[in-house]
Structures are given as C-alpha cells and as structure tokens.
Amino acid sequence: MVANEKNINYIIDDGLLIKENEVIAGVSAKKAATKIETVRKALFNNPEEAREIKNAFIKYRPESILILGTSDNMIKKIRENLGLPELTETIYITDVATEEEMQEAKRIRQTQGKHVIPVPTFEIKKDFSGFILDPLQIFKSKGKDSKPYISEKSIIRPTFSYLGNFKISDTVFRQIIEYLAKKTNSIYKVNRVRIDKIGDNEGISIYMEVTIVYGYNVVDELRSFKKKCKREIENLTAMNIETIDIVAKGIYVPEEKE
Questions:
Q1: In a shared domain, residues 152 and 184
Q2: What letter would DSSP give residue 64?
C-alpha cells in the first residue's frame, strides 16, 4: 500500500527484488533452513546474492526503491551491502497500520508460522515448490473518498517454521494422474508412473506410460493430457513440475456395438 501511494514500483523484501507483482531477482530468505541463515539472506551478506540484485539495478534502473526491514539497522546493512544511497524517507509500521492489525499479524506469525510475500502466488510457486502457499486478497480503504488499495499477496510457511515439515508421497501424484486419466476420454489407462524429486523441494519430474483409445489424435491428446496433469498437480500440491514425459505404449480398440 505504501509503495502504491508513493508511486514506487520496486520493493526489496526478505532477499527478493520485486518489480510491481514480479520477482525479478534474489532468493527468498524464507527458503533458508535456519533463522540465522534467513537473516543473512535478508541482509544480502552473501556477495554473490548481492551481486545478482546489483545487476538487476543496472538492468532496470529503478528511480526509487522501498526496502522492508524490521529495524533501522537492518535497512542500513541492506543499503550498504547493495551499494544503495542514503534514505530519503523512513516510514514506520506504526505510521500505516493500526495496533490491532500489528497484534493480529504477530499472533499469526507466532502461532501459525505464516509470513506474507508481496507477490501473487503464481509468481512465487516455482521458488516455493513444496511449501504451503495460500493466495491472500488484500482490500483496504483509508476513507470514504480515498481510492481503495487492492492487491494479491502470498502466505508461506518457511522451512524453519517450528510447525514441522510435510512430505507428499509419490502415491498422491500417481492417484491424481490416474483420476485425470479416468476423466479423459482419449486415455484408456495409465500403465506406469515414475516420480523423481529434483533437489531439495525444487520440484518433481514425471514419467508416465499410457494406453490411448483408438481414433484419437495421439500427439494432440498427449499434449492436452500433459497440460492438464501439470495444472492440476501444481494446484493441488503446490509442487513445481519441472518436466512431464508421456509415452503412448499401446492402443485400445473398443469393441463395436451391434
């Protein structure tokens, strides 16, 4: 809301450089395994991570940047590590949020381990594959004659959250694929599914073999089924699908009715 009112199109928040609703550089500190590492990432202590942001500055040439931080000292360290000039204005949370809003935000963070990132969920799904992601629609008005502020943000539960980790079994992906196959007239059955994890929560790769119903265009139907699988699995599991390989292993010919 502050960026909108100040006509600022660039935001630095928790290791990310955000342009309007798009992450253009950086890796979210919320992906760090520990709270200490989270702080280091948020401050851009790593020269390589700081260099990526600096290169983005050269490419996009922002006229102004809103830096989000939890203290004046944190903002100072971010500026120094990124080579940014002195501040022209400091706005504190007490200037823009009510006491009730701050207490509610604090309660949710402490009890549920949830944090807000100021970009739409689809924009960060790739970076947060395997995390809990929820879209958050923001609507706020400052008064009767004021223009309302409407935006979409994303709620995530960071790796270091004390609530614990969660894992999604390969069986879940297999069952989703088999269910979609039953709803697809051109797919007779799914013969085999193999799920390969990529890195540490970076996403998954899917290989499957199917039997096609005779009479359908094999290429078109496989392409359509691949898109359907990718869309539904990402929506249901928040996992990023890196690749889907589908092999037509057979043709099913329905018996002709008399």
A1: no
A2: -
φ/ψ of residue 186, rounded to 5: -80, -15
CATH number at residue 239: 3.30.70.1350
Write the CA distances from 163 to 111, 114, 159, 179, 236, integer angstroms. 9, 10, 9, 31, 21
**131 and 219 inside one domain:** no
Q: What DSSP character marks residue 195?
A: E
- Domain's final residue, options 133, 156, 179: 156
| Same-domain status, 54 and 122 | yes
d(CA 51, CA 133): 28
162, part of any domain: no
Give the integer Cα–Cα distance in Å for 164 and 194: 27
Distance CA 90, CA 171 (A): 51
- Segment 135-151, tens digit of pLDDT: 555 555 555 565 555 55
Residue 222 CB partners (closer than 8 Å, separation 6+): 210, 212, 246, 248
Q: Is 83 helix (H, G, I), strand (E, B) or coil?
A: coil
Q: Which domain holds residue 247?
A: 170-252
pLDDT in tens, 39-66: 888 899 999 999 999 999 999 999 999 9
99 and 194 fall within a common domain: no
Beta strand 133-140 with 66-67 is unpaired
Q: Please state the pTM of the whole predicted model.
A: 0.52
| Residue 147: alpha-carbon gap to chain centroid | 28
Is 83 within a domain? yes
How many CB atoms are closer than 10 A to CB 127?
19
Cβ atoms 206, 194 nearer than 8 A = yes
Is 55 exposed, middle or buried (CB count within 10 Å of its CB: 0-12, 13-18, 19+)?
A: exposed
Q: Are residues 93 and 143 in the same domain?
A: yes
